[in-house]
């Protein structure tokens, strides 16, 4: 049976758009809900363009027990995909969707993870520390920022003359290339224990 996915995002929605477009015609999964905590988030436009139900709910409301879980259950959501969602997920949602909530992070975790480490802040830290590689980590979500089980990592070399913008572009290319395929594989095998993989 096709899995019903919710995407939670706070920004422009590039990863959400990529996933939605790649799932068109899929018999494995479909996006049935897009939810954001920011009323001017670009991901709302992505949902509208693709005729997907979209909601904007303030962070204070989402943090209250029962609110987010109630929304997800009302849409019969099977699994949740975080794509640039900047709020911590309430404990009741994490428990209900244990093993069924996934996030993409723009670094090779455990490096450059945790509270406050997202988007450009990650790339700036990678640049400042003169790292030779960066990448993406797709992982399950638990009660701690960026500490859930790793499902997939992909890495890219950083040249000595790469600035923050170039690092960001290289990492974004990895997200575009790998995120939808990993999500489809994950939802297909959701009920089985899977080993981490690295490329």
What's this model, at a glance?
With 199 residues, the chain is of the alpha/beta class. It contains 7 helices and 7 strands; from the N terminus they run βαβαβααβαβαββα. Helix content is 35%, strand content 22%.
CATH H level, superfamily name: Formyl transferase, N-terminal domain
User: How many domains in all?
Assistant: 1
Spatial strand arrangement across the major sheet: 3-2-1-4-5-6-7
Strand content: 15-25%
Write the CATH fold name.
Rossmann fold
Q: Gyration radius, to the nearest Å?
A: 16 Å
Structural class: alpha/beta
pLDDT average, as an integer? 93
CATH architecture: 3-Layer(aba) Sandwich
Globular, elongated, flat, extended or rod-shaped: what is the shape? globular
> How many beta-strand elements?
7
Give the termini distance in whole angstroms. 30 Å
Helix percent band: 25-40%
Largest sheet: 7 strands, mixed
Count of helical segments? 7
User: H/E series, N to C?
Assistant: EHEHEHHEHEHEEH
Parts with pLDDT < 50 across at least 5 consecutive residues: 193-199
Text of the CATH class: Alpha Beta
What does this structure look like?
The chain has 199 residues and is an alpha/beta fold. The protein has a single domain, classed as 3-Layer(aba) Sandwich (Rossmann fold). Helices cover 35% and strands 22% of the residues. It has helices at residues 14-23, 43-49, 59-62, 67-74, 91-96, 119-128, 164-188, and strands at residues 3-8, 29-36, 53-56, 79-82, 101-105, 133-140, 150-157. It has a seven-stranded mixed sheet, covered by helices on one side. Helix 1 (14-23) runs parallel beside helix 7 and helix 6 crosses helix 7 (164-188). Residues 193-199 have low confidence and may be disordered.
């Amino acid at each position: 049976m096709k899995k019903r996915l919710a995407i939670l995002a706070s920004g422009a929605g590039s990863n959400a758009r990529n996933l939605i477009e790649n799932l068109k015609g899929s018999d494995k999964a479909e996006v049935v809900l897009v939810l954001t905590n920011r009323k001017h988030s670009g991901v709302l436009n992505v949902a509208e363009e693709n005729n997907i139900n979209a909601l904007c709910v303030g962070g204070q409301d989402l943090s209250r027990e029962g609110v987010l879980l109630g929304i997800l259950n009302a849409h019969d959501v099977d699994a949740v995909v975080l794509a640039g969602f900047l709020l911590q997920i309430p404990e009741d949602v994490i428990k209900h969707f244990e093993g069924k909530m996934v996030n993409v992070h723009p670094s090779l975790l455990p490096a450059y993870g945790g509270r406050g480490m997202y988007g450009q802040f990650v790339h700036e830290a990678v640049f400042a520390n003169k790292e030779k590689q960066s990448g993406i980590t797709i992982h399950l979500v638990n009660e701690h920022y960026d500490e859930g089980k790793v499902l997939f990592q992909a890495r890219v070399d950083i040249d000595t003359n790469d600035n923050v913008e170039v690092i960001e572009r290289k990492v974004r290319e990895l997200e575009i290339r790998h995120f939808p395929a990993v999500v489809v594989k994950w939802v297909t095998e959701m009920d089985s224990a899977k080993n981490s993989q690295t490329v």
